[in-house]
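Ops channel
N.P.: pipeline sanity check, posting one input/output pair.
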């Protein structure tokens, strides 16, 4: 079954849109989560770079607070042992026994340290016992005890002591320090604790990192580390970047939460049937509209070209754009115009050919008729001479035969000239000449005929240079004047006039006589058409036809009209400028 272009484009468009939707669904199912995590990692790294600049200007704690408030990023700076650097708000100072040294201990590391009850019990002047991990010359506290309270860093303590002790920590050196609390800086109430020391999970991740460093004897990281952690069904992305500032090694520890992408994707999957159902309907509708819109000009092109194929050129394609479709429409319209012009020209040529065929038929009929009379006369004269009838008129019959032979010769010459002029291949050479001299020569050549009929010839001519073929124009004037002589009664007048019209000269030959009927005026330029001769001598019937062809070769205006006293033949020639 034949499929329309609308249907094909509809199917193609629907397939493309459906493929796009399918690709989006697959990408969202299999690649969105990974893309989301990578994007969050890149964003977190960018904030870590920003944090370094802010910390240099405002301090570590202020920089941590600003990024958390503005971007919800947990970030801080650690020293080479994994402790938060520059703790200014949450610490105690202990004056060591038997030494003048002051040990500053950040309090975020100890379990329960922010309970208001415990904090209120820890006062300046208390005797304290401090358990430490000793690495080189550094003492890292992980437990503090007084007479009434005790706080401990379980991330380290549980790995060093107890049933769950880790063998990786068995080689660590531990020690005990004793002293007196000299200073305590921390808020009295839990609600007053500021970021990052109020973020328990963030601090636990820092302490776990610190514990891992201690297990490796504080061997520094060589490259940035990334890992994930989960708490209360929430996933977090953690990045630890080694840094060196002023020759001191340390780390930037950053954490950000990841939205529950899996849960979101699961909900989206449940939503997919409704979404895809509605989308498919929209795709079908849009594909149909798009296909109709896209195919409309092509359908019009198909309809118009079908009409052109059936030779109907009345309709043209509308051109509404300048793209390839618009250019194609313009080309088809141009082709239609050209074909219409060529076919019209072909019809004219065919009509002309038919007309020429009719003319040829008429010409052959006319030639046959014209030759029939002289041949009959010659045959009759020969029969009379052969039979010896009227021997005393022998010279008369010879003269009659000679006249008919001359007339036949003239007829043949005129026929050949007419065929040459009508062929369309003959191009006369145009040159300037004096029209008055040509008229004078023609009048001189026909003076005998004028005298025989006792005609009055009046010439109203002026000396003027015209452009044309002198010989052919002379022949036209001869034909016009001969025709005038033939149709003018004895004793009447013929007038030849040359009139200057500025750019052209009009030459006319007017004779006194009967006017020409309207029917004869239409046929007078035809071949072998003759008005009834008023003399015994008549022409071949080709003179005016030859004159017409000569004047058309000169592209000259010509015609015949009845005047007050007779008939006037005229034509125009351009003046040499």
């Amino acid at each position: 079954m034949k499929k329309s272009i609308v249907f094909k484009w509809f199917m193609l468009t629907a397939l493309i849109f459906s493929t796009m939707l399918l690709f989006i669904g697959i990408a969202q199912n299999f690649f969105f989560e990974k893309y989301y995590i990578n994007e969050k990692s890149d964003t977190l790294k960018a904030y870590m770079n920003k944090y370094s600049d802010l910390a240099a200007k405002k301090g570590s704690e202020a920089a941590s607070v600003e990024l958390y408030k503005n971007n919800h990023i947990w970030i801080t700076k650690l020293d080479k042992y994994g402790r938060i650097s520059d703790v200014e708000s949450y610490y105690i100072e202990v004056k060591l026994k038997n030494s003048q040294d002051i040990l500053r201990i950040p309090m975020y590391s100890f379990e329960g340290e922010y309970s208001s009850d415990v904090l209120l019990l820890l006062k300046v002047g208390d005797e304290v016992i401090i358990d430490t991990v000793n690495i080189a010359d550094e003492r890292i506290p992980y437990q503090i005890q007084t007479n009434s309270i005790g706080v401990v860093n379980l991330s380290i303590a549980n790995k060093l002591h107890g049933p769950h002790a880790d063998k990786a920590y068995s080689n660590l050196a531990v020690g005990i320090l004793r002293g007196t609390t000299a200073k305590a800086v921390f808020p009295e109430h839990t609600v007053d604790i500021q970021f990052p020391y109020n973020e328990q999970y963030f601090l636990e991740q820092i302490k776990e990192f610190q514990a891992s460093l201690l297990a490796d004897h504080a061997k520094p990281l060589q490259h940035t580390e990334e890992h994930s952690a989960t708490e209360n069904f929430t996933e977090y992305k953690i990045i630890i970047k080694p840094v060196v500032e002023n020759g001191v090694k340390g780390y930037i520890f950053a954490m950000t939460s990841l939205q529950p992408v899996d849960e979101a994707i699961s909900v989206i999957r449940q939503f997919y049937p409704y979404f895809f159902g509605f989308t498919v309907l929209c795709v079908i509708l849009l594909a149909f509209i798009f296909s109709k819109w896209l195919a409309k000009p092509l359908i019009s092109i198909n309809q118009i070209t079908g009409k052109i194929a059936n030779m109907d050129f009345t309709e043209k394609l509308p051109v509404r754009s300048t793209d390839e479709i618009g250019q194609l429409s313009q080309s088809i319209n141009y082709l239609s115009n050209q074909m219409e012009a060529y076919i019209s020209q072909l019809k004219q040529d065919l009509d002309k050919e038919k007309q020429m065929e009719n003319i040829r038929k008429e010409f052959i009929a006319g030639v046959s008729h014209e030759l029939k009379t002289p041949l009959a006369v010659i045959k009759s004269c020969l029969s009379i001479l052969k039979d010896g009838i009227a021997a005393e008129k022998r010279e008369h019959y010879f003269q009659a035969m000679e006249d008919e032979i001359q007339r036949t010769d003239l007829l043949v010459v005129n026929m050949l000239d007419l065929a040459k002029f009508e062929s369309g291949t003959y191009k006369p050479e145009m040159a300037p000449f004096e029209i008055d001299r040509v008229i004078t020569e023609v009048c001189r050549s026909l003076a005998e005929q004028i005298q025989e009929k006792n005609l009055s010839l009046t010439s109203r001519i002026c000396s003027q240079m015209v452009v044309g073929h002198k010989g052919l124009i002379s022949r036209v004037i001869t034909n016009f004047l001969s025709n005038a002589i033939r149709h003018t009664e004895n004793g009447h007048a013929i007038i030849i006039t040359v009139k200057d019209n500025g750019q052209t000269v009009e030459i006319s030959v007017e004779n006194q006589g009967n006017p020409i009927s309207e029917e004869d005026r239409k046929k007078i330029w035809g071949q072998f058409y003759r008005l009834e001769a008023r003399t015994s001598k008549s022409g071949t019937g080709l003179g005016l036809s030859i004159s017409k062809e000569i004047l058309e070769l000169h592209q000259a205006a010509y015609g015949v009209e009845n005047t007050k006293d007779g008939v006037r033949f005229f034509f125009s020639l351009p003046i040499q400028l």
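N.P.: looks fine end to end. The two ends are 75 Å apart (CA to CA).
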